[in-house]
Amino acid sequence: VYEFPMPDASEIERVLSGVISGSPHASPLMESLTPDLKDRLVKAALGLSLDQVARAFRTALIGKTNVDSSLIDGVLEEKGQMIKKSGILNLVMNRPALDDIGGLENLKEWLRKRTDILSSEGKSFGLHLPKGVLITGVSGCGKSLCAKVFASFWKVPLLHLDMARLYDGTIGEPEQALQVALRTAESVAPAVLWIDEIEAGISIQSQKAGGGTQSRVFASFLTWMQEKSAFVFIAATANVIELLPPEVLRKGRFDQIFFVTLPNPQERKAIVSIHLKKNRVDLSSFNLDMLVKVTEGFNGAEIEQAVNGGMIEAFNSGRPVNEHDMVISAGNIVPLSTTMREEIGRMERWAYNRAIPASR
C-alpha cells in the first residue's frame, strides 16, 4: 500500500509562484514577496493538498497588489477549515505571547533555550526535536495559557485535541477518530498539539470503565507519541496527574513535567501589571505593592477577575480605575487556596520531587 504524502515545501513554493504569475498584479506582487514572507507563506500552507494550497493563495490574493502578513492569515484560515473537517481537531488562532505570562521563569527559560530548535543550524548541530511537555498543578494558574504559548513562541500552528470528543460517538469509532486526528496533526507539522486535561481521555480509571476501546486508544496514542517522526510537539495539561498511567509520564514521551502552583508576590505583581496594561490603565498612578498584598493566595484567574471587577466598579462610578476599586473587588473573591487548601497541599507534596517547578 503506497500512501501519497502531502505536498512538501518545494511543491508549495512552485504553486505560490504559479498563482502569483497568473495574477493581473504579478510584477508588484513578486517585488513585495521577500524571502522571509515566502518562507512563512510556504510554512503556513504545509498540510494542505495542492488544490487547497492553490485555492488558499488565490483567495488570499484577491484585491491585493502587494504581499504582506495578512496573506498568511488568509492561508491559515483555509487550513483551519480543512482541520475542522477532521471533526476532532481545532486550529486555535488566539495564542498568547511569552510576555503575556507573569512569572513561571523556569518554564520560560526551558522554552528560550529551544528558540532555534527548528533552524537549519540546530539540525546540522544534531539537536533532537523536543517531543512535548506535561503541565500539571493548581487550577487557574495558567496551565492552558502555557500550553498555547509554545505555538506562538515557535510561530507554528496550534491544534487542539479534545479527548472527550473521541468517545462521544459523533465522529465514528474512537480508534479511527484518533488515527485521523494524528494523521492530520502530522500533515500540518511543524505544529503544537494541545491536549487539555489529558487524564480525561487516558486515565487508569477511564480505561477500566471503558473496557477494550479505551485501552486500544491509549496503546495507539502511546505508540504514536514514541514513534512520530514529524515535529508535532505535545503540550498537555493535567489537573489530577495521579490518574495518569506511569508509562505516559516516563522520559521519551514527555521531555519535562512542570508543576504550576499559586503565584508568589513577584509573579502576582507581574500578573496584575499585565491585566492592567491590557485594559490600557496607567500603572504610574497605582500602588502595585498594596495589590500584591490583598491578592495573597489568589491564582492567576482570580487576579484577572479582581482587575475586571475593579474596572466595572470604576466604570459605574464614571471615573478612571484606582487601587481602591481593585481592593474592593478582591475582597469579594474567596480564593481557591482557601476552599481547596487540603487538595492544593496534597498536589504540592506529590510534585515535591516528581516534577520541575515552573516558577523560580
Model description:
It is a single chain. Strands 1-3-4-5-2-6-7 form a 7-stranded mixed sheet, sandwiched between helices. It has helices spanning 9-21, 26-32, 35-45, 50-61, 70-84, 105-112, 120-125, 143-154, 163-166, 174-187, 199-202, 204-210, 212-227, 246-249, 265-278, 288-294, 300-317, 323-331, 336-339, 341-351; strands at residues 89-92, 132-137, 158-161, 191-195, 232-238, 256-260, 356-357. The protein is globular. 54% of the residues lie in helices and 9% in strands. With 360 residues, the chain is an alpha/beta fold. The longest helix has 18 residues, at 300-317. The protein contains 20 helices and 7 strands.
Distance between the termini: 52 Å
The side-by-side strand order for the widest beta sheet comes to: 1-3-4-5-2-6-7
Please work out how many helical segments DSSP would assign.
Answer: 20
Structure class: alpha/beta
Compute the number of strand runs.
7
Give the rounded overall mean pLDDT: 83
> What order do the helices and strands follow?
HHHHHEHHEHEHHEHHHEHEHHHHHHE
Sketch the major β-sheet. 7 strands, mixed
Which range best describes the helical content: under 10%, 10-25%, 25-40%, 40-55%, 55-70% or over 70%? 40-55%
Rg calculated over all Cα atoms = 23 Å
CA-based shape? globular
Parts with pLDDT < 50 across at least 5 consecutive residues: none
Strand content: 5-15%
